[in-house]
Fold:
Amino acid sequence: MMKDNANASEKTTGTDDKGEFIFHLTQRAAATLYGKKDKYLSQVVEVSSANYDRHKTLFIKL
Structure:
């Protein structure tokens, strides 16, 4: 699940067969990502697109 911290909207997505997923962040977005898997620990990560230069990277690896 991704929660947009600016407007409190939430989005959910599933993973592919490799466990990878994609969320789209707007420019200058700040979001909280929450991931969980049965029988594993859950994890919360804060992400801010302001910390990344879109001219240098398009993807953020967690």
Notes: The CA atoms of residues 1 and 12 lie 4 Å apart. The chain has one domain: 2-51. The radius of gyration is 12 Å.
